[in-house]
Design a protein that fits this description.
PH-domain like; four-stranded mixed sheet; about 35% helix
């Protein structure tokens, strides 16, 4: 997975991406000022996960081809049936791997502006919450599975008049949430007079 600072400007009103230096938002006409620049902008992809999926499919395809050739040599015309079965197996395996990482290679962004927090994940609605809508950020961590099958989830609760919450999975939605997102978010929240509790407090 790769992470990089994005130099694009996100509109704090409609969350559309604009070019850095634009005076107004092309979508809603919001007027950008120095105060509306992003305080935090984390942009990541899951390229490594995507490559892993492709490698799995490639290795499976290679094994099936070897098995098919062996079957053809041993059983003659009957090997054609094995070839067809192998082709269907490769297809369904590709679909299966794709279902495990449906957002592989797509950009996800965690953005904080002076007005709001924006979380943009592939294949999901954009999550937005204004600083005025909550008084406290509470984060809870949940770990499921075992060893190499372990999965870590972080639930972000924005508690207050307009309480909202969102669940992020480490390694799938963002890489190293506990290091790259929670610390800077905590710092920004405290600077705005908000309370910060739960994991990472």
């Amino acid at each position: 997975m790769e992470s990089e600072k994005n130099t694009q400007l996100v509109c704090p009103k409609c969350a559309k991406i604009n070019k850095l230096g634009d005076k107004v938002c092309f979508n809603c006409g919001y007027s950008f000022t120095e105060e509306s620049q992003n305080l935090l902008d984390i942009s990541q992809t899951l390229k490594s996960t995507r490559i892993f999926g492709i490698c799995c499919i490639s290795w499976l395809a290679m094994l099936l081809i070897i098995f098919t050739v062996f079957s053809f040599i041993k059983w003659g015309a009957g090997g054609i049936i094995v070839l067809l079965i192998s082709a269907f197996a490769i297809f369904f395996m590709a679909v299966f791997v794709k279902s495990l990482v449906p957002s592989a290679g797509k950009i996800r962004r965690f953005i904080v502006t002076e007005e709001k927090i924006i979380i943009d994940l592939p294949n999901k609605p954009i999550f937005q919450v204004g600083w005025f809508e909550f008084d406290n950020i509470e984060i809870k961590r949940k770990i499921t599975g075992y060893r190499q099958y372990k999965r870590t989830f972080y639930t972000f609760y924005f508690l207050g008049e307009g309480s909202q919450s969102i669940v992020l999975e480490s390694g799938i939605d963002f890489k190293k949430i506990h290091k790259e997102i929670i610390p800077p978010l905590k710092e920004l929240a405290l600077s705005k007079g908000k309370e910060f509790s739960g994991y990472g407090k």
